[in-house]
Amino acid sequence: MKVLNLILTLSLLAACTENRQLTDEIITVDITGSYPLKKIVLQDFMNVEYVPLETNDNFVCQGVVRAVGENLLIVTNRKSSDGDIFVYNRNGKALRIINRRGQGGEEYNSISSIVLDENRKELFIGDSYSHAILVYDLEGYFKRRLTTDENKIFYNMYDFDREHLICHDSFNENTAADLHAGQSFMLVSKQDGHITKEIQIPFKEKKSVVTRFTDESGMTFAFQPNNFYPIVSYLDNYVLLEASADTLYRYSSACTIEPFLVRTPSIQSMNPEGFLFPLMLTERYYFMETFIKGSGYQDVMYDKHENACFRYQVHNNDYTKNEEVSFKSRPLNREIPSCQSLDAPKLVADYQKGRLKGRLKEIASKLNEDDNPVIMLIKHKK
């Protein structure tokens, strides 16, 4: 018995030590802080791939990238209410336009999110209007309809593994905090849409990034920040932002969860409330944005090598003079965490001014002002 007690005591001490080390390693970001400016070059820490989208009489689009695979690029217009889904290959060649917008059981009314699964040769279209996920093959033919709970809206969903999507319930953010206080993240079956796992993130009191206000006429309006992305890829994992929690968590492909970073002050102590939004996460840099209701935004970058936070400017080295890169587009996937749509008129003007270099200069030399955008895919270095 004494030996058993000794073993249990040593195990407990080891576990406590491991937990303490984990806590010591957690990054803390003060969302009210004032940070010095740091300038860095994108190509120093990420790879860049340019994809000029083919333009023809049928393929005229605004270049909003919704999903990227090894072979395909899925694009819509800024307002996807037209229902058009443009399918290109990774070289930018126009392949087809899919449009299944309608009121029928095999159609979507709106496009809130798109997941491309090239292994299954399927597109998953999140339809917030009907609270469903429509599944099509890569030619646009209907395969099945995944019916979800009417109280769930999946504006943010990503490919998790062969059998599951990882989803965030936006209904949780857009309703009054005291009406819907459940968990926001879940794994959803690609086959029938049932929730196979609810991801538990602890919080004290339900909070929302949505700001509500009433005008003089008595009408109530809601404002949600543009760059609120609750699911962001981080190498082989996903980082999950529960607006009600002080801690952002990393969720692995093995379905394990652990703290990733902590924001201060506590969400419970702030009035007005403030939030920390992850944008793009790399091996060295974490690019984020703070948002305080009534005060606005601030760009923040955490540098793991310097163990410090900065404001930041990231420049594209394919320009002869400083050209800033934005990471505020919708996050993509584990290989390609971010992208930027480069409009043809600006590229043509920059080429004429001699501001471009390398591959981007070569592409711009062949553009017309009326062409579709060039997509800049920002990829992790291998």
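[next item in queue]
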Amino acid sequence: MWKSVRRAAMATVHLVVAAAMCFGLYLFVTVLLIAAVGTLAVVGCWLLPEAVLLIRRIAGAKRNLTALWTGREIPEAYTPMTGTLRERLRISVQDPGTLTDFRWMLCYYLYGALLALALPLWPLGLVVDGVWAGVLRRDPVVLPLIVRLADTEARWSTVLLMPSPKARLARRVEELKETRADAIAAHEAELRRIERDLHDGAQANLVALSMRIGLAKRAYDRDPDAARKLLDDAQTQAEQALTELRHVVRGIHPPILTDRGLVGAVRALAAGSGLAVRVEDGGLDEGTRAPAAVEAAAYFVVAESLTNVAKYSGTDRAEVRLARTRRGLTVRVRDEGRGGADESAGSGLLGMRRRVAALDGTFEVTSPAGGPTVIDVELPCVW
């Protein structure tokens, strides 16, 4: 009985909030009428985008309320309201999400006041269920109806607020535009890094090598010992240039990935990180390998994460988990350091996010103050 009372009370609170929101929408009709009249009169056309933005916020609040009751999130799919006034007006009218929100509002005017049906059930439920369940030990029959009303309200809201396929497609296109821009920016930054490494490292060593060989040729006849010393220096310079070139090549695509696969490359990376790193391969040592681009992205995420652990975390222990899933490859890097990782602080997190987004993957960082810091990456691929 008490369980039914608590559940009915929670349902009533949900319905009260829903009814309050419905009453607010009744008042919001005035704003919509003013925006519509102002738009038709041209002089107030700036009101329409603002009204649509306000509708989006109201619908977002309703999505959160419904998700709180049902435990299932309702996705949003809106075209960003940016640009000139003319562009914002066009988005306000043509965005499929606007039509979805207006349809929900019109229906919500009717079913948003289900609280009126729930309140009369309370005195009846306390009397009937109090005897039926409290005294006779039977299942309550009236109070669960309040819960059903809340479930009905949430179910209708879920159906009406769910983005249409057209809206989801439009939002997906926007996301792909953003990830494409990030991928291009990351690619340009990578090209600049390679150019800088070649110019400042390998090219400088090759120029010095050429100069030493020239000096050795001039000194060969008159001072063989000096020429031999210059040739020794030239050999050292050549070895340094080769080292720089190998470093650049590893930055483009680590050869160890091709030779040993992702698990072997990550284990080698962990062994050379100076940290006590536990690597779980999740069965990746066996079976088909992921595509080269996916392996490279996973490798660089682990490499950058371990570098951050060594530089910022204040701990010497970390954990790397690689796992093959039905949809792709997942990577988790965890440390028990001080936490507080910030993407805007130049720690490489933004670069990792862009590299993952370029492959249509997901990148999540959890790093509360005091730790732990957890980086979760999912890279889609076909095995």
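[queue empty]
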